[in-house]
Amino acid sequence: MTALPAGSARRPRPPRPGGALIAFEGGEGSGKSTQARLLAEALRAAGRQVLVTHEPGATWVGEGIRQLLLHHDEPLAARAEALLFAADRAQHVQTVLRPALAAGAVVLTDRYVDSSLAYQGGGRELTVGQVRALSRWATEDLRPDLTVLLDLPAGDGLARARGRGAADAMECESLAFHERVRAAFRALAGEDPDRYLVLDAARPATDIAAAVRARVERLLALRPDRPADQQGAGAGDVTDGAGAGDDAATDGGRPA
Ligand code: TYD
User: Fold this and answer.
1) pLDDT at residue 248 in the model
2) How far does the centroid of ligand 1 lie from the alpha carbon of residue 228, in Å?
3) How many structural domains compose the chain?
4) What is the pLDDT at residue 14?
5) Is residue 145 part of a domain?
6) What's 108's domain CATH number?
7) Cβ(48)–Cβ(106) below 8 Å
8) What is the pLDDT of residue 129?
């Protein structure tokens, strides 16, 4: 066996026993939640156990952190912001993501580590390397099997997002900030194309959903097939957070 350098981004990892982790990423208004929901419907119709969750705010501690992060009047230091997102993620990984994966669910998360790399690393004055090290520690290096990046010009996405209601702290950032975020997402995908699916978020939602489904079907075909009806009692419990740990992740419907 050839030893690969520790921490190599391209180190092949063995298939995850049981489930798969799929992250939806993108800038503001890129349609991640819709696509996660459409994929969940398709996978459930095919008999898969699915958990749909999101960051920040899918756990009891995350709800408070989300409020601090997105609804504050006083300035928030870039390092404090990065640490708060990492804390939200650490709780999410330990109490929601890992239990669901261990139970064999396909876990769809609306934002994950790449959001921190792009927003805190690309958008703010921190470096992607600093934020990556923090994220690896917080997640004990739990990485997605696939990341779907919904790519959209920053101005178009912001217009969509701001049209939905009162802007949160991140939506109030400048267009230049959101352009840096977009560039950072695209750079991450470019570094590891096998683990990303980059799609034009301006395409009709049904076209995007079909492309996502096709790619995920390929991914899951390489894994042990564990449809819910072939598993032991309680297999269907791991949906939308119920039974996935101490904290309940919600399916869509995030607080503002
Ligand atoms: P949210 O209301 O969940 O909406 P959406 O995901 O649809 O944009 O907003 C979360 C905000 O937090 C969003 O602007 C991206 C930002 N964010 C970060 O800056 N870093 C992170 O690590 C995560 C998970 C989110």
Assistant:
1) 36
2) 31
3) 1
4) 58
5) yes
6) 3.40.50.300
7) yes
8) 97
Residue with tokens 């520790």: 6
Q: How remote is the CA of residue 15 from the centroid of ligand 1, in Å?
A: 28
Residue listed under structure tokens 């999101």: 54
To test the pocket of ligand 1, the residue of 115, 149, 254 to mutate (highest count of ligand atoms within 8 Å of its CB) is: 115
**What pLDDT does 166 receive?**
84
**Residue 87 token pair:** 């804390």
- Rounded Cα distance between 16 and 25, Å, is 21
SS3 198: strand
Output the ligand 1 site: residues, CB below 6 A: 28, 55-56, 70, 85, 110-111, 115-116, 119-120, 168, 170, 254
pLDDT in the model for residue 15? 55
One-letter amino acid at 230 equals Q
CA distance 42 to 221: 15
What is residue 11's predicted lDDT score, i.e. its pLDDT?
57
pLDDT at 223: 74
Q: Which residue has the tokens 């997105």?
A: 70
213 within a domain of the structure (yes/no)? yes
Question: Whole domain around residue 25: which residue ranges?
Answer: 20-229
What are φ and ψ of residue 234, in 5° steps?
85, 0
Q: What pLDDT score was predicted for residue 46?
A: 94
Continuous segment of H or E residues that includes residue 199: strand 196-200
**SS3 state of residue 16:** coil
Residue nearest to atom 20 of ligand 1 (CA): 116
Measured distance CA(180)–CA(5) in Å, rounded: 30
> What does the block give as tokens for 39?
């994929």
Residue spans of the chain under pLDDT 70: 1-18, 224-256
Strand bridging mode 20-26 / 106-110: parallel
pLDDT in the model for residue 27: 97
Crossing angle of helices 78-92 and 128-139, in 10° steps, is: 30
